[in-house]
Amino acid sequence: MSELKATPKAIAGPSNFLDERLGGANFLKRNLRKIFPDHWSFLLGEIALYSFVILLLTGTFLTLWFKPSMMEVAYDGSYAPLKGVMMSEAYASSLEISFDVRGGLLMRQMHHWAALLFVAGMTVHMLRVFFTGAYRKPREINWIIGVLLLTLALAEGLTGYSLPDDLLSGAGLRITEGVAISLPLVGTYITFFLFGGEYPGEDVISRFYSLHILLIPGILLALVTAHMVLMWVQKHTQMPGKGRTNQNVVGAPFYPAFMAKAGAYFLFTLGVISGLATFTQINPIWLFGPYTPADISAGSQPDWYMGFLEGSLRLMPPWEINLFGTANAGTLPLSVIIPALVPMGIIMTGLALYPFLERWVTGDNREHHIADRPRNNPHRTSIGIAAMTFYGVLWLLGANDEIAANFHVSLNHTTYAGRVLVFVGPALAYLITYRICLGLQRSDQAIVSHGVESGVIKRLPHGEFIEVHTPPSEDIEAHMRGKEPVPMLPVDEDSSGIPPKGMRGPLGKLRGRMSRAYGGEKIPLDDGHGHEHEDEHAAIGSGGSDDRSITH
Amino acid sequence: MTRITAWRRHPLARYAVLILALALVGMVYAAFVQAGKPADAALAAGKVDDVAEGRSLFEKHCMSCHGTNAQGTTTAPTLIGVGAAAVDFQMSTGRMPAAAPGPQAPRKPPAPWVNETTTRQIAAYVQSLGGGPQVPGAEQVDPKLGDAGKGGELFRANCIQCHNWVGAGGALTQGKYAPNLNEATPTQIYEAMVTGPQAMPVFNDTTITPEEKRSMIAYITQVREQRDPGGFALGRIGPVTEGLVAFVVGIAALALAAIWITAKKRQKS
């Protein structure tokens, strides 16, 4: 570690320059040597970060030509099939960006692809954090910031999708209006407030524009900064491995190694986004035509991140409540309120509360800086996969018309199947994932206690064939031995059958039961094989021990 | 006695009068029938064979489903009054004769015996049954004579809720679907509008005038022939394939890049 103590010249020079002017040398010296652990999945969040940077830059380009106005004009640009058609200025200026501004179409397509990758990057990053338990103390607040970022990204996507005022974005706007107006009591007021009168009104584009380019990105930027600063201060979690403890971070320093990697990854992200934008057409608004509330197209879909809401809307049976008659008390359209609010509520609230629920169930108040391998907390992993299945079924069913049309199945059957799968799928996913996790734990156990198959078959004097096992390499074994039992509350009853304090009421009993199920060690790494482990290293290679036998 | 009176009393006069009267009645009858019956008009124009040939082709290929006199059965609708345009549409797109019963007959390569002549003959036979829309002329469907901008507005107002914004098609209930419009010829698009094949409603000439239909054809053909300015169009079905590409290409490529740049150097052994 001696080489870390000498400051490289490349750091000393700039820090000296800044220090003499800003007095920040200590800060820089300390932070430029910040250690970052290395694992490919730790870079997934950066997809979202770099996409956000690209979104800000391309978005600024687009604002130079976009006119957020719903004034009707006759199109007079270079796209022939729309010549003379009446449309809003917003749509006409989006067409102008696409066809008459140099590089405009590329910028529009980069903006849209970056938006898709922004939310996709956030999602896969969030899944990584969830499945490795990296949201645990002390990172719960950063996790909540992440959930807020995701929610805001959806709002940002929805407002941006509506801005070009093409027929497809109008369909999304119409659903937004439908959801707003379905809210009990306040629905009508909210809708009239949002649209400045009867739908679609003349205000919604300029209002969404302010939200899309000013308010939401401002909050996003602030929260992204907070997210990064907290990550920096609290340090990144690391995967279990050789020499890695809860007190240290093993990896590469920010400068130069991690900075080079991060810089390269930004360029990769830029490359993928501009490559997609160059070769793959996205959101061809000229094909959709201008929005008029009377028109609606087959295949109207939202961007992928709103697909699960579309799917829940399509799955929902047409329930509504008409108490005292529509004229007196209005209609409560359950067929809109439930799909619009319930799945989103389950997913976002579930995400926000999960760290606290887990802590409540496990009673685990320790700090965690070593990430869990997903298999080592099987219930958490199963809950995550079940939630992904729930989301996935809704998501898939958001495209059920395309599935029906392209795979030649009945649209009705896809809906019926979805209505069943949305409940059965998560349950099945839970059970299957749980078994897979335990199976993977058993496989770890086998590797730790028996070693790895070497491919060498030996024949023993009495005729039995065995395969020689070699011990796993040090870092792999250390990676596996990073496993910790999932903590459990002290739930054992005392000698007279009284449960511990706080576990006596119905809620306490439930908590105790959940803790027993969730926590504990299901498959101890060395369980029942201790005697083998002792002589493992001695026995390997000789191949003479029956312990190594596959018939054991 | 005059000479006329003498002829009138001639023994053959009564026969001559009878023949004359019959001829007159016959001519009047023929004139009436000719006016009322298009089939006989076709007969008079020398197309007599088309109807007869059409009838015999109908007996061979269509009768088992559509009934002995094209009156329809439980499996297939009546063809009385559907017109030549319906026959031309169904047969030229290969939908009829149908390969199998199902929610909807798909477009397919026509049967070997189907060609312009046989189609025309069956069309003439069906037309002779009860009239109906005729096959449009070339000028009636010429995209060059239409106004694509106006046609686009009509297309969006009337067609895209099933056929999608570029005519990429879409699903309907119970296995039915609106087909894509990429292969349909201008004549077939016109015929589909006036006859309403399968699940499609009829857009007759009072709903959408022939000129408007021609404009719609102009829009459909212009848009489908357009080179996509933004790159691969991903089927032109919108955000579903775009989202798929975002994950399958975008996220996958970036995950691979992450694996690559965080990979450890292989230790020399």
Give the tags:
heterodimer; A: 552 residues; mainly alpha; Cytochrome Bc1 Complex, Chain C; 60% helix; globular; B: 269 residues; Cytochrome Bc1 Complex, Chain D, domain 2; 12 helices; elongated; metal ion binding (chain A); metal-binding (chain A)
Model description:
Chain B: The chain crosses the membrane at residues 12-32, 244-263. The complex is a heterodimer of chains A (552) and B (269). By secondary structure, chain A is mainly alpha-helical. Chain A has 3 domains: 1-33, no CATH class; 34-372, Cytochrome Bc1 Complex, Chain C, CATH 1.20.810.10; 434-548, no CATH class. Helix content of chain A is 60%, strand content 4%. Chain A has 21 helices and 6 strands. In chain A, a hairpin with a 5-residue loop joins β5 (452-459) and β6 (465-470). In chain A, α3 (44-63) runs antiparallel to α5, α7 runs antiparallel to α8 (187-195) and α12 (307-315) crosses α14. The relative contact order of chain A is 0.09. With 269 residues, chain B is mainly α. Among the domains of chain B are: 42-130, Cytochrome Bc1 Complex, Chain D, domain 2; 139-225, Cytochrome c-like domain (Cytochrome Bc1 Complex, Chain D, domain 2), CATH 1.10.760.10. Chain B is built from 12 helices and 2 strands, in the order αααααααααββααα. In chain B, β1 (170-171) and β2 form a beta hairpin. Chain B is elongated, with a radius of gyration of 30 Å. Chain B starts with a helix and ends in a 7-residue tail after the last helix. The model of chain B has no long low-confidence stretch (mean pLDDT 87). At the A-B interface, α5, α10 and α16 of A face α8, α9, β1, β2 and α11 of B.
Give me a quick take on this structure.
Chain B: Heme c 2 binds at residues 159, 162-163. Chain A is 60% helix and 4% strand.
pLDDT < 50 runs, ≥5 residues of chain B: none
CATH superfamily of the domain at 42-130 in chain B: Cytochrome c-like domain
CATH C-level name of the domain at 42-130 in chain B: Mainly Alpha
User: For the largest interface in this structure, which chains are involved and how many residues does each contribute?
Assistant: A-B, 71 and 60 residues
* Strand and helix order of chain A: HHEHEEHHHHHHEHHHHHHHHEEHHHH
Task: Please count the beta strands of chain B (DSSP E, at least 2 residues each).
Answer: 2
Q: Figure out the total of helices of chain B.
A: 12
Name of the CATH superfamily of the largest domain in chain A: Cytochrome Bc1 Complex, Chain C
Classify the beta-strand content of chain A into a percent band. Answer: under 5%
What is the chain-wise order of helices and strands of chain B?
HHHHHHHHHEEHHH
